[in-house]
Specification:
Layout lengths: L2 H28 L4 H4 L13 H9 L20 H30 L10 H23 L7 H9 L7 H20 L4 H29 L1
Helix pairs in contact: 1-4, 1-5, 4-5, 4-6, 4-8, 5-8
Length: 220
């Protein structure tokens, strides 16, 4: 990723991570756990969620990976607990997916309206919005991987009752971060990430094109 693309990607990253963690906090709060609220995480303020090591990884990986400070949830306060755990785990992924759809639709609608000259402010704005959409899509897909400590692991490990307390789950919890670091090292070119993203890009692209086509038909 070149320097300009990296800079244009920063607003989308900040937006995506802030909304992701806010979604976890909000859902946990709705299910009865006051921990995120008490820790000041029930906010969209990026400063409440920012993790400088995650930001450093974003720069070192050329924009392929990043994370924010995880929201702490007391699962024993969730009511009902099982549904609450699943909902909290999926909240961030759902939020990033929704943001991706909204931002990509916005970029397509802005594209024909703003000045299209090379290097113009309008072009940079469209690119920044589009990058933000793809970053949020990437965050959703990446977090859905069933690898500790990602949201996908929290969801799938609790989907099967009792599995989260098994010996297999214990070892995966211990070494999941090493797998993520290995993925980061091996995927410097981003090939694995692009492979994972492809089916979701087709799906989201179909939704975006359908909505944009409908809007243009209505205003045309």
């Amino acid at each position: 990723m070149d320097v300009i693309r990296l800079i244009l990607s920063i607003p989308g990253l900040v937006l995506g991570l802030s909304f992701h963690e806010f979604a976890h906090a909000w859902v946990a709060d709705r299910f009865g756990d006051p921990t995120p609220r008490n820790q000041g995480r029930l906010t969209l303020d990026p400063r409440a969620h920012w993790d400088w090591f995650g930001a450093l990884i974003f720069l070192l990986s050329g924009g392929q990976f990043a994370w924010a400070r995880p929201v702490q949830v007391n699962v024993w306060r969730l009511r009902p607990r099982y549904a609450g755990e699943l909902a909290v785990a999926l909240a961030g992924i759902a939020m990033n997916t929704l943001l991706a759809i909204v931002l990509l639709i916005g970029s397509e609608l802005l594209d024909p309206v703003l000045p299209a000259g090379p290097g113009g402010a309008g072009r940079f704005l469209v690119q920044a919005v589009r990058y933000a959409g793809f970053i949020n899509l990437g965050l959703a897909v990446f977090n859905f991987l069933p690898v500790p400590p990602l949201d996908g692991w929290r969801f799938f490990s609790r989907l099967v009752p009792g599995f989260s307390r098994s010996r297999i789950a214990f070892y995966l919890d211990q070494y999941g971060m090493f797998f993520l670091m290995l993925l980061l090292i091996l995927d410097r070119s981003g090939q694995i990430v692009r492979l994972l993203l492809t089916p979701f890009i087709w799906l989201i692209g179909g939704i975006v094109n359908g909505v944009v086509g409908l809007v243009l038909d209505l205003v045309g």
